[in-house]
Amino acid sequence: MKTTIRNQLKTVALLGGLTALLVVLGGALAPGYLWLFGVLAVAMNLGSYFFSDRIVLAMNRAHPIGPGDDPALERMVAELAARAEIPVPRIYVIDDPAPNAFATGRNPARGVVAVTTGIRQLLTERELRGVVAHELAHIKNRDILVASIAAMIATVVSFIATAVQWGAMFGGGRDDRDHPGGALGALALAIVAPIAATVIQLAISRQREYLADATGARIADDPLALASALAKLERGNARIPMHTVGDSPATASLYICAPLSGSSVARWFSTHPPIPERIRRLEELAAERPRRREGWSARGLAEAR
How far is the C-alpha of 165 from the C-alpha of 6, rounded, in Å? Predict the structure, then answer.
């Protein structure tokens, strides 16, 4: 519980920082046009929010499974959804040998869980249960809403900064008397602000992954099963690149394991926290609760690694 509260507070703090950045940038550079950028960003992100599930599923070529097509997976999702106290989400499958999964849907009533064919072949039933619980945690925690808010604010910041940069290029900016920092200072702020907004937005994404790990571990009541699954997924995605995400890298942040993690991306610009750190936190969570004889053993986790 302490871990969940701590992750929630970090998300609130990061959203507050993103909002503060927007206010500072808008007030310093384009106070007269802040409302216009705000309206445009809200319109864009509301559209993404309401239609994100259809867009994401289409981009990843996911198709729904019908009743009885996969009884074991259907029972697993239904059981874990009941434990999470959310409606049973729709289940989609992605024909891709890379092992991965994601959740989408703007609220629990429209939740969707999608798994690749590769993850079904790689993970044991217990490990898959941990992954499904993680994805249900994203739905329960309304992470699509949080991501939409963060994206909306970051988009406004980018709009304002772009307008200022174009204005400076064509001589449309204010003179030095209106900007205490001077024209160069204003331009520098316009360049730095979008980068800072992106860093904060990605930090929010990483915090929501940590939160989904903790919440999912409690839903499944088996933190080490998810830890074992993450260890296997990291190796599996390094071995087999996702063809679907390769065509649509914008959706990579949705997956439980970053499909593009093999690229040389700075840690601050990663949508996912490092797998070893996620495993370490899950092990700590498991140590906080009494050991169960039928529980996942430390030896089993070591073998999965």
Answer: 38
Separation between Cα atoms, residue 24 and residue 186, nearest integer Å: 12
Tokens of 100: 């991965």
Q: For residue 283, indicate whether it is catalytic.
A: no
Token digits of residue 97 = 């040998």
Q: What is the pLDDT of residues 71-112, one digit of tens each?
A: 999 999 999 999 999 999 999 999 999 999 999 887 899 999
Nearest to 139 by CA among 215, 202, 47: 215
Provide the 8-state DSSP code for 273: -
Number of domains making up the chain: 1
* Token pair for 182: 């001077």
* Alpha-carbon gap, residue 282 to 285, rounded angstroms: 5
Residue 85: exposure state from Cβ atoms within 10 A (0-12, 13-18, ≥19):
exposed
Alpha helices in 123-239 (DSSP H): 125-140, 143-169, 182-220, 223-239
Contact between 268 and 199 (Cβ < 8 Å): yes
Which among 74, 127, 135, 209 is annotated as catalytic?
135
